[in-house]
Amino acid sequence: MPGSTADVRAFRGEILDFVGDPATLGETAWRHFADGVLVVRGGKVAAVGPAAAMLAAIPDGAVVTDYRGKLILPGFVDTHVHYAQTDMIASHGAQLLEWLEKYTFPAEARFADPEHARDVAAFFVAELLRNGTTTAMVFATTHKVSVDAIFEAARARSMRVIAGKVLTDRHVPQAVRDTAESGYDDSRALIQQWHGRERLAYAVTPRFAPTSTERQLDLCGRLLEEHPDVFLQSHVAENLGEVAWVAELYPWSRSYLDVYDHFGLLRERAVYAHCIHLDAMDRKRMADTGTAMSFCATSNLFLGSGLFNLQAAHECGARVGLGTDVGAGTTLSMLRTMEESYKVCQLAGQSLSPMQAFYLATLGGAAALYLEDRIGNFDIGKEADFVVLDPKATPHLARRMERTTTLAERLFAFMIMGDDRAVHATHVLGALAHARAGG
Ligand code: GUN
Ligand code: ZN
Questions:
Q1: How far, in Å, is the centroid of ligand 1 from the Cα of 139?
Q2: Is there a contact between 79 and 235 (Cβ–Cβ < 8 Å)?
Q3: Which DSSP letter does residue 336 get?
Q4: What are the backbone angles phi and psi of residue 261, rounded to the nearest 5°?
Q5: What is the pLDDT of residues 369-406, one digit of tens each?
Q6: Between the CA atoms of 224, 325, 146 and 169, what dihedral angle is there, to the nearest 10 degrees?
Q7: Ligand with smallest separation from the Cα of 302
Q8: Nearest atom (ligand 1) to Cα of 82
Q9: Is the pTM of this model over 0.90?
Q10: In Å, what is the CA distance from 297 to each residue of 92, 164, 180, 429?
Q11: Which of helix, strand or coil describes residue 234?
C-alpha cells in the first residue's frame, strides 16, 4: 500500500459486511473476519481482510485503532425518518389520520422558525450518530428553512443525508400548507442550493396523496423530469382509513399506488414508506419501476397500521430498506427497528434471519436508496462509514453473548437486546463521529 501515511487509518476488530442479500445468496452474502483489519485512506475503504495478512501491509506510522472484542459493521442506513417529529415521538392514543391532526401538524408548524429548526436538526443528527446511523432519508417540513437546517446539520457532521421540503397544498392546517406553485418553486430552489453538494442529496417530498392536489403531484413529476437524478420520498398504503380516503379523492385510480404511478412518481431513487396494504399488481409495479419500499416496523406497530409483508416484497423483487419513521416510529435505533421487524415478520408467519436483518440495515438500505456504489459495505473505494458494536454493552447482553456459539446467534442477540448502549463508536468517512461515554 504505497503512498503517504498521513491520511491512512486502520481499525482492528471483528468485521462483518454484506455483498448481497442473504435471502438470495445464502452464506456467500457476507464477509466475516473474526480478527480483521479495515484500512481507510482519505475517508474511503482502502482494504479489508484478516489481521494476520493485513497488519504487515499497513504503512509504518499509520494509526491503528484497536476495536478487538467488538464488531465493526457498515454504518446503518435509515431509509425513512422525520427529523421534525423528534420532539413529538411517543404521542399517545391515535391512529394515523388523527395522529397527524392532533400531534404532527402542530409540531411541524414550529419549523417556520429557523432557530427551532436548527436546534432540532443538530440534536437529531447527533442522535442518529449515537445510534450508529450514518445515512438517512429525511422528511423536513413544508418550510424551506427546515430543509436548510437539516442539510446544514448533516454537513457539519459530514453525514450522507437525503432530504426534502414537504409538499402539502390541501387538507392540512394553513401553517403547514403550501400551494402547488410555491411548492414547486421552493423545491427547485432547494435542489439548486443543496442537491449533490458534498454528501447531500435532495428528495422531492409530497407528504402523501391525500394532502396534495392533482396539480401538485403533476408538478412533482415535472420536478423529477427536470432534475432526473434527484430522489423522491412519500408514504403509501399505511392505514386502511387512509387507503379509503385516497379512493374517494382519486376515484379514477386502480389503487393508492396507482395515483403516484399516474403522475410518474414510481421510479428509481423513489422510496415509499409503509407499503402495507398493497396488492400483487402494486408490488410488481414497484419492482418493475425500480421503486423502493421502506419497512417501518416500530411505526406500523405503534400506530396500529398493519403488518408489512417482507416475503411478498422479496418475492416481487422490489428493493427494501428499513426505516425508523420517528415520530410515529418509537426509536431512532436501527437495532431496535430490526427487533420490531423480526416481530412483525413473526406475526405474519415469516422468520427474519439475523443475517437478513443486518443486510437490510446496511447494504439493503443503501440499495433501496440507489447508493450501493458508495456506501453499505466495505468494498474498496466505498465511503468508510461504520459502526462498532459492543457485545458487553449491558450485563444481560454480555451474559447472553457468552452463551452464543455462532455469528448468527450473536447478531440476533444484538438486534433483540441491543439499542444505543450497544453502539460503542460511530465513524463517518473514517473519522470518529461518536464515542459512547465511559468507553
Ligand atoms: N403519512 C403522511 N404523513 C405521515 C407521517 O408524518 N408519518 C407517518 N407515519 N405517516 C404519514
Ligand atoms: Zn413517515
A1: 10
A2: no
A3: H
A4: -60, -45
A5: 999 999 999 999 999 999 999 999 999 999 999 999 99
A6: 60
A7: 1
A8: 6
A9: yes
A10: 17, 23, 32, 29
A11: strand
